[in-house]
Amino acid sequence: PGTIYLKDYQQPNYWISETHLRFELADSDTVVRSRLSMQRRDGVAEGAELVLHGVELTLLSLLVNGVDVDQSQYSVDEQTLTIRGLPAQFELECVTQIQPQDNTSLEGLYQSRTMFCTQCEAEGFRKITYYLDRPDVMSVFTTTVVADKAKYPLLLSNGNPVDRGDLADGQHFVTWQDPFKKPAYLFAVVAADLALVEDSFTTMSGREVSLQLFVEPKDLDKCDHAMLSLKNAMRWDETTYGREYDLGIYMIVAVDDFNMGAMENKGLNIFNTSCVLAEQKTTTDAAFQRVEGVVAHEYFHNWSGNRVTCRDWFQLSLKEGFTVYRDAEFSADMNSPTVKRVEEVQLLRSAQFAEDAGPMAHPIRPASFIEISNFYTLTIYEKGAEVVRMIANLLGEDLFRQGTDLYFDRFDGQAVTTDDFVACMAEVSGQDFSQFQHWYDQAGTPQLDVSGEYNAADKTYTLSVSQSCPATPGQADKPVFLIPMATALVGRDGLLPLTLNGVDCGEETVLAVDQQSQQFVFENVTEAPVPSLLRNFSAPVKLRFDYSREQLLMLAARDNDGFCRWDAMQQLAVQIINEQAVAWRQGEAISVDSSLLTAIRALLGDAEANDKAMVAMMMSLPSLAYLIELSQQADIEALQAAREKVRLAIAVELQSLLLDCYHSNVSTDEYRPDATQIAQRSLKNACLSYLSLLPDQSAIELLQQQYQQADNMTDTMAALSAMVNSDGPNAASAKQDMLDDFYHRWQQEALVVNQWLQVQAGCGLAGGLDRVKALMQHPAFDIKNPNKVRSVVAVFCAQNAINFHHSDGSGYQFLAEQVIRLNELNPQIAARIITPLTKWRRFAPAQADNMQAALKQIMAAPNLSSDVYEVVSKSLT
Ligand code: B3K
Ligand code: ZN
């Protein structure tokens, strides 16, 4: 497989103005007829070749302007169809045959259970018919779908239905027309027998839009939340960005077999069932929020992605980073903004930073790739969103809105670049974005090293800041970034007023860190302050400041920035866990430093006055993944043992406070997935998680009681998860009983069974691999269903570090086998689950060698897909 470079971008030789498609769906030998109106691009030489993309297609016929193309005028290979001797304008008719029933890659047209559906982004359309399958080729689509009427009463595509009727042999057809020009990646077709939930929305200009959700009949009771989220998102985009929906129908189809969360096809979103169905008894609070976020994300793409799309796939973050930023702000407005922000930081720190430090590190606008499917990454999405957030903060609300208005208006109906986006922001604000641009083309997580010095005589406080960014593949030295560092100074009684260079800057200021090292001198500082840095996580960087434990306690208690308060607790916990890890390695037992216990005691004592969700987050220890990420060479056993020891100390020392807090947050109110209730449940379940560590029967009884009395899946899962992870002497049989009960109760609900699989695959107790192998033999497992693979294989390898990294290398061997198996079935999923092995350089030689050996074993397997090849080959160099 070859590398594709951004610098080689060229417009195509031909454009497509109209696309007419006819699908004749069948159990095998589905036929696709296409008729394309094409024009040679201005400036392209007469007779220039037309190179169409096409993969795994059987070409049945090819006509230009109604005449068969002579064999000598075209050639076909595995990836392309090349036609020569074409006029400046012509109609190309092409008939191909495909086999969706055998398509396990879930890309192109495929079958999921009893339905046909498509996934075209990024390059799936070429598995449907020969086409210019690139996002800068935008065309108007008219699509006719023909299928058996009894089996597939529902025939959908993008836009509006314009014709329908019955045909011979029990077949019927529907014709759809999408008035908006679009690239092929936004095309979709569905043929199914599903139930419909319908609602409507009146747009700000008074147009009525029909909202349609298609699900299996048994799931009709799980649609309210997605529908409400959709309506909220539509209204929010009108008020926040002035963007209105543009078609008369908005459809969402839920499918079981899907490679990711959902897809924003114009007017016809296709969703993984896990991102649309939600109901109190079967769905956790976290999953409710995910449904809300994904429904909004796909809706927001209608403007940021569909109306204004990407010129080429190097610009992917143009639509994804911006849309994640938009959905994040929406979710923040619908729920607790601080909690949402902390969750974003947790994801960045525990996973995106690691990606940015590994062999697949890439800028949010990459310069090259082998397989674009590998670039739907946390970097493109989450770091991309952080970069848009920094722009929004640099401009302020009003100018940012002016910038997005200009962007949407100027580029409506076009395929553009991240440069075009930034240029709009520069134009409306008059700001110079040249240094800021490095965020788009440089990979790696920048690091800020900060120190502070108080001068009592001068009443000055000087912050010395230096920045660095580690080398990443192909980028050794990097020019310095512009890093906005939001800063405040915390004094005994709260925030101190800030004066910089004689200018009064209120209580918080954004320092523009734009040099390798520089100083900021605050004046009239009346006491030695504790600096509150990178407030609300103002830039996606690592920050080092040598805080004492007293200073961290002070920030946790007195800062008014929720992110900084939480982060102070995290830093305190990291220090304490790391000192336990050192002792563990030396075979010593030292007591757990009391500062953390003091801080949690204070939080619990004041839980009623605080945001309960924040208390829950602040009292929870950093994840093992984050602790690993912070270590130069991670000793997972030591970190895990240390973390567990600190958890147990908290449980033992604060037992009665935890129990009080638990009981005072048991609610009898009717379930609602709103911020207040979610906060209360998260605090209660954080307490439960600690209490479950206590080595006595009452801990098990508490779990059993919650499990039996729960009227919602959040509480059920909290109890089940704590039970599964419990290894007290009496836990074994209670655990098996609970697992069996759960399965028997929910075996008909695929999404609930997935949670049952996840909780077991993620269990950190010894023997993890054997449990996972047994789960894969269970009837509930299916290697062809990505949700099952993610629930078992990916959870074990990516979220069960202690078992996956077992010193005998068995976890790595297991993953290599699964990747090789999935490489043939579903290359995208195969490539995605390799991630844990790519991090081998972060481990001690004994482990690193075994991880490398597993990568080499994959590399040696036959028929490697470009997806798997890229990840493995880059990891081994
Ligand atoms: N745009 C799709 C992702 C497509 C992934 C293709 N491998 C979903 C989204 O980001 O909204
Ligand atoms: Zn997206």
TrEMBL record:
Which parts of the sequence belong to the Peptidase M1 alanyl aminopeptidase C-terminal domain? Answer: 550-876
Q: Give residue ranges for domain Peptidase M1 alanyl aminopeptidase Ig-like fold.
A: 444-545
MF terms from GO for this chain are:
alanyl aminopeptidase activity
The name this protein carries in UniProt is Aminopeptidase N
Q: Which intervals hold domain Peptidase M1 membrane alanine aminopeptidase?
A: 229-438
Q: What is its EC number?
A: 3.4.11.2
Q: Which Pfam families match?
A: DUF3458, DUF3458_C, Peptidase_M1, Peptidase_M1_N
Q: Which cofactors go with this protein?
A: Zn(2+)
User: In what residue span(s) does the Aminopeptidase N-like N-terminal domain sit?
Assistant: 64-186
Q: Which organism is it from?
A: Sinobacterium norvegicum
